[in-house]
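Notebook entry, structure prediction.
Reason for the run: the old model in the group folder had no record of what sequence produced it. Starting over properly, with the input documented here first.
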Amino acid sequence: MTSGPGTAPVRQLSASQRSAAAIAGALSAAGTRLLFGMPGGGPNLDMIGAAEASGMPFILTHGESAATMMAATYADLTGAPGAVVVTRGPGLASAVNGIAHAALDRLPLVVIADTVPAQDRDRISHQLLDQVALGRSVAKAVVTVSAAQASQAAGQAVRIALTHPAGPVVVNVDAGARGLLPQDVDLGTSVRSHDLAPLAAALQAARRLVIILGSLALPHTDCVRAALVGSGIPVLHTYRARGVVPDSAAEAAGLFTGGTMESPLLSSADLIVGLGVDPVELIPATWAYAAPAILVTDIPAGSAGYFTGGTELAASLPAAIEVLARYRARHSWPPEAGRAAKTDVTRRLCGAAAGIAGTAGRRHDRPRARPARDDRHRGCRRPHARGHAPVASRRATPAGHLQRAGDHGVRAARCDRRGPVYFWRASHRLHR
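New structure, fully documented this time:
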């Protein structure tokens, strides 16, 4: 505590608190407004306190994996980095499932974990794991934040998470560490932009163009809608891109799954153009369509490897959309071809579902064959093959039939685990 004349005492922050404040400040500046987690003690509690002070309420979860997936979903919904705090060692290991989810869905995520301090690792083995190696197996980068360089390291961790392709970054908090900052190479190298002339030439010759929109087109939704809505060109969406062109638009042809649903539409196309398609979204399937495919993304995504024989252009998506808009009136699709394709998919799916339901219904409604009568074991202790107690005759008179049925039921129960009540009821039904 320090104070001056006429001033209130000023509380000095510990090294751990300074590190936590730097991380919270970097996240808050990037737009993060919630912190999820399953904390331990020490630096984790400092992180929660610093987040609260920065206007980020803490949400306690049942486990680390759930916390990480919730933070990744927050990033997906808001575009701001998701933030999660976990304890060292096994806590970070438990969060790996959620970190992998964020990596595969290209979601910016900052995972904050405390560590065994570097100067104590020769002495303390409790909850000690190689967190750098663990984080690198699934995350874009691993950053150690110490008090000496907290602001720089925290800011760089957030920038790495947001840089395309977005993804998770593990932040190990070791207030006394003296490690180096991550190198600028972690932010990604510059990519040479391809010329869009091949796209323009293909669009000029095409008459039955089909567009596939992927998740990387989401930031350009307004441009895409201005170029495609009202054009009459059928548009397919990957799961994560659904809604870029509204479902109500005549061009919306449904989902692109890599399966058979969209096969009739793609088979009738003479050019397929993908905008922002990331192959990580696509199910493993053979690409067997004759039409040439041109895939345009802001960054190299490896799309041409999935679309056999396709061409990938790493170029500005807004520029590619502008080129597309210039040639949008050259197609020969009938009116509302996209909506018709989606209606056809719905009809085929409903027909397939009805067929499955009908088959199940016929299987359950099939009349059961009545077992043949067999009186060879009449009166013995062996139960009937169908579970009914053997009796003298189905035509027994009402008088005394309960006694006979009960007798046989008790005897048969000695040979069967279902008990005398079951066999009494079965015999009673048989004679009724």
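Summary: Residues 382-432 have pLDDT under 50 and may be disordered.
The old model has been moved to the deprecated folder.
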